[in-house]
Amino acid sequence: MDLPFLNAYLEAIGAPSFRKGCNFAAAGSTILPATASSVSPFSFGIQVAQFFRFKAQVQELQAKTSKYDKYIPPQDYFQKGLYMFDIGQNDLAGAFYSKTFDQILASIPSILLEFEDGIKKLYDQQARNFWIHNTGPLGCLPQNVAKFGNDPSKLDELGCPITACCGYGGPPLNYDSRIGCGQTKVLNGSSVTAKGCNDSTEYLNWDGIHYTEAANQYVASQILTGKYSDPSFTDNLPFLLKLKF
């Protein structure tokens, strides 16, 4: 798309430019409010609150001086801008290890209500253009196959032996929950290291949980065609993504 990556709100040090937009995403964040055991404290509600603070700070600066105009978005961008969301996977992925399947299904309405509440708050702040992405498939992640793959009742007829690029244990999964990508630990009396593969473009999965850059780029290239959106916008706003592999 030949567009720059958006600078992160949480790294607003050293006068980064937010003129093209701002990224409020945080690794490990969830839609539901964070708890003491959460990976990230920056749940969706916190991210929405951070946006409100960002908008207020922009308006405050614009009212005082034009000195920072090259770093901050013009006022009309808040209404004209595209608000993109890709969140919710951690709500489900984490639940697989602490809840029953029925409990996970029962939690989905509350997750959606929390998300809806955040969207409404943004709409009330003049946001009008929303692009909401669904969560990615979880069942074939090496982490989940390693955990649940020995139970035939949890498998379908298709199967999915996806190998992690960076991990330990070798095929078919190259994943061991005891040692993460890049770590060195003593397992079974020997010092071992979870190393990366030689060419990540040949793999779909990076570390048992996350996709490789190549896989993400392919998925993005399909999303940006607009044909998988509802409603589709293929004819109205086509994007082209130059694949590097």
TrEMBL record:
Keywords: Glycoprotein
Highest rank taxon of the organism: Eukaryota
Molecular function terms from GO: hydrolase activity, acting on ester bonds
One matching Pfam family: Lipase_GDSL
Similarity annotation: Belongs to the 'GDSL' lipolytic enzyme family.
Record's protein name: GDSL esterase/lipase
